[in-house]
Write a structure and sequence with these properties.
Length: about 525
Amino acid sequence: MKLQYKMVILFSAILLFTVGITGYNTQNQLQKTIETQMGNNAMDLAVTIASLENIQKNLMKKDAEAIQSQIETFREKTRFQYIIVMDMDGIKYSYPYEVSIGKKYLSGGEEDVLKHGKAYTSADRNRFISAIRAFAPIDYQGEQIGAVLVGLLNDTVNREIEPYTRNFQIALVIALVLGIIFTFLMTTNIKKTIFGQEPKEISLLLGEKELILESIDTGIVAINSKQEITLMNDLAKKIFQVDQEVEQDIRMFDDRYAELLVSSMEEDETILHVDIQTRFNINLLCSFKPLKNHNDEIIGAVSTFQNKTEVKRMVEELGGMKHLTDNLRAQNHEFLNKLHIISGLIQLDEKEQAVKYIAELSEQRQEILGILTHNIKNVYVAGLLLAKYSKATENKIDFVVDKWSNMDKLPPHMSPDKFCSIVGNLIENAIEELLGKKQSKIYVKLTQDIEHVHLIVEDNGSGIAEDKREKVFERGISSKKGQRGYGLWIIHNYIEEAKGSIHLTSSEDGTSWEVWLPMKQI
């Protein structure tokens, strides 16, 4: 059931219950108030009649005719249905129907007035009538000689209060209807406010939003018009080292960052790609944009940022891709040269030489393809090794993949990009070391068992200088001219994240890298 219908039903039920209880209690209270007032009026009349000297004397004389005549005169001028004068034995001397005069009063309730001389009101509810009664003693010369009873039927009371009751009931019904209409209008407005979404849909959207915010590699901070933080994802919390973001003042951050974020909101200006260094010495590449509601009113601002070191790494990786593309173009050129050689041999009718030349090329290619196809099941790694083989061959470097290499899958906690970055950087360093050298060779062995992935990359270059071996994993350290020294630093971080290890062995005869990566997360 939709939220709007649930709210209408719930509020209508609450209104119905409240109005019903209120109406019931009010009507009962009104009934009791009217009955009490009527009882008081009946008592006033009963006391008045009991104090009349003529009634007292006629009752002493037991003159029923005189009493009946006088009492009926009184009764016809009032709203009361019956007035009964009785002696101490309960014998009636007046009654609306003369046939009952002289008979004993049998309806009950007169005991206290006759035996104890009390004046009181009571309700007479039997199967024939329902009435309000007032009893008062009749005294003569200091002695009780009887009692008077004044009665008013409840039907008369009900007729008198019926107009008030009807009006009250109509008012209750109108209040109930207006309440239901107001509830419907209110729920409709709420529905519009939440853009017609149901609670489950809102919950799903919020969940998706949280997942998206926490899965992206970009820090996000948002503020409201009071310059209070309303949103900060986990990456932003980590960079600014805060535990809870809600309602914190933006001024808690670095002045430059806070100034630009507030300026974007106040000036309604989008600010892109600004370099900011935090007080924790982290370089950020930031962008700022004002936030607006559906009425185009500025309600805050949002900032997105990335660690500039990561941005540089991505730029370098893109540069590596460009380098790979250039290598592929060069390889394509080399293949064209080989095709030209084959074409020339055929045109010179040197068919045997052409076949021999093709066989040599095919044998070299098939050997590496066989190892990669049958032993290396991960297509990313196989593709990388094939590309490095092509590049090494293009540069006259003997590239050997151990025939006992085998790999079925990557460690589950390491992405293909990171693993390929480790393998690719080590091989690329070896290729660059061997460029222009004769009889150069690169040896690669990649094995996997239940517990580890084991990688060996060796070259027969001139090695790494001893004074640089201990610092080789530091950022910016490189033995190559024109390089910035980020490759080994990056892969060292990847290996440490995976709880693995990397070992370097280097001498004048070459360099050997050995990497161990656990198959299970430690």
